[in-house]
UniProtKB/TrEMBL annotation:
PANTHER family: ANTI-SIGMA-F FACTOR RSBW, ANTI-SIGMA-F FACTOR RSBW-RELATED
Name this polypeptide is given: Anti-sigma regulatory factor (Ser/Thr protein kinase)
Region (Disordered): 125-154
Domain of life: Bacteria
InterPro entries in the cross-refs: Anti-sigma-factor_SerPK (IPR050267), HATPase_C_sf (IPR036890)
Length: 154
């Protein structure tokens, strides 16, 4: 896990962290970088992560050519009505929805929320031997959750 501060300029550093972590060419890693960038930017714009002393935590894991990433924010802005990730009218999560094989979120409104995505940088479905999951079972439904994972509409 890596943690970034509240400065918008740190999104560029996070993109480099993501790209180097994939060990892929930039062109191949671009869908994953774009998804991470959107989720990071959303955390800074819409949560306490973008405020003084805010932070954004990230995780990334590769499995069979696919990548799972998670971005966790600091919860709702003080005095703001708690919200949850939704496709809505914005562009960012629509882009995530188009580039990711799947995405969703978990947490409680008003508290830190983790938005996750699974991205296949190969651009299509990958062949997986019969009887084996496409992603590790811990990525499908992390056992540490007390709140059921919620899938975004789309």
């Amino acid at each position: 896990m890596v943690s970034w501060g509240s400065l918008p300029q740190q999104v560029a550093s996070a993109r480099l962290w993501c790209w180097h972590g994939t060990k892929l060419s930039y062109d191949r890693a671009y869908p994953l970088i774009a998804v991470l960038s959107e989720l990071h930017t959303n955390a800074l714009r819409h949560t306490a992560s973008g405020g003084p002393c805010g932070r954004v935590r990230m995780e990334m894991e590769g499995y069979r050519g696919m990548f799972w990433l998670a971005v966790t924010d600091d919860g709702a802005l003080p005095g703001a009505v708690p919200t949850v990730p939704d496709l809505g009218a914005g562009f960012g999560l629509r882009l995530v929805d188009r580039l990711a094989a799947g995405w969703g979120w978990f947490g409680l409104p008003g508290h830190p929320i983790t938005v996750w995505a699974v991205v296949d940088p190969r651009g299509g479905g990958s062949p997986v031997p019969a009887g084996e999951p496409a992603v590790p079972s811990r990525l499908e439904a992390p056992a540490r959750l007390e709140v059921p994972a919620q899938r975004a509409a789309g």
